[in-house]
Amino acid sequence: MGIQITPSILAADFANLDRDIAAVPSADAIHVDVMDNHFVPNLTIGLPVVEAIRKRTTHDLDLHLMIEDPDRWAPEYVEAGAQSVSFHVEAAAAPVRLARELRALGAKAALGLKPATPIEPYADILAEFDKILIMTVEPGFGGQAFLDIMMPKVRRTRELIKGSGRQIALQVDGGISERTIDQAIAAGADVFVAGSAVYGADDPDAMVRSLRAHADAELHQNHVH
Ligand SMILES: O=C(CO)[C@H](O)[C@H](O)COP(=O)(O)O
């Protein structure tokens, strides 16, 4: 699968989404954070905006649903044009059923975990997912400091993925920058969400390429994964 850099438009200018999405042609996908002010204490965008974005970019859309009742809403984001949908295990009533429904609709299904949620209870259902999303900040806001204390969980998740014998991506989200990406890749992550690092840079696309170069260099130097 290789390294993937997915810029988060949470750090873009919401009045200029079209321009800011076009500013990262080197992105592997555009990461879209949906927050409902219930699962997390912040409110962002919903289905109509995702539908509008879908019409303006050929990039894959990587949805991250930080919402209650994903069982009800996640399939609608596939209909709106998402190629990948992450929902949180803390919020889902029936994560396996929901993952199967998303895959049946043709999307990738991803399981999200907040920092205090351990991976071990979900070891037996990992194979139902295309990707595991480990939060490296408390979800809700961009621009927070990277939680390096999550690296043991990333390592354990990589081991469980290896044990499953499946091709499952391992995404980290929150505080990823040129300074922190090395730790995450050394721990076994291969998909990186970066919001403020990308959109706070003078040249967002150059930052996407730089993050990928950092990750590639760390990967080859340490022979991780
Ligand atoms: O999911 C998120 C917050 O809940 C954001 O995607 C994440 O925080 C990325 O932003 P930054 O790179 O600025 O930390």
From TrEMBL:
Domain of life of the native organism: Bacteria
Catalytic reaction equation(s): D-ribulose 5-phosphate = D-xylulose 5-phosphate
HAMAP family, sorted: RPE
UniProt remark on cofactor binding: Binds 1 divalent metal cation per subunit.
Pfam family, one: Ribul_P_3_epim
Protein name: Ribulose-phosphate 3-epimerase
Described function: Catalyzes the reversible epimerization of D-ribulose 5-phosphate to D-xylulose 5-phosphate.
InterPro entries recorded: Aldolase_TIM, Ribul_P_3_epim, Ribul_P_3_epim-like, RibuloseP-bd_barrel
Lineage: Bacteria, Bacillati, Actinomycetota, Actinomycetes, Propionibacteriales
Protein EC: 5.1.3.1
GO CC annotation: cytoplasm
Family to which this protein belongs: Belongs to the ribulose-phosphate 3-epimerase family.
NCBIfam families noted in UniProt: PRK05581.1-4, rpe
Sites where the protein binds substrate: 8, 64, 140-143, 173-175, 195-196
Family matches, as SUPFAM superfamilies: Ribulose-phoshate binding barrel (SSF51366)
Binding site for a divalent metal cation: 31, 33, 64, 173
MF terms in GO: D-ribulose-phosphate 3-epimerase activity; metal ion binding
Active site feature: 33, 173
GO biological-process terms attached to the record: pentose catabolic process; pentose-phosphate shunt
Annotated metabolic or biological route of this protein: Carbohydrate degradation
Cofactor: Zn(2+); Co(2+); a divalent metal cation; Mn(2+)
Keywords in alphabetical order: Carbohydrate metabolism, Cobalt, Isomerase, Manganese, Metal-binding, Zinc
Gene3D superfamilies registered for this protein in UniProt: Aldolase class I
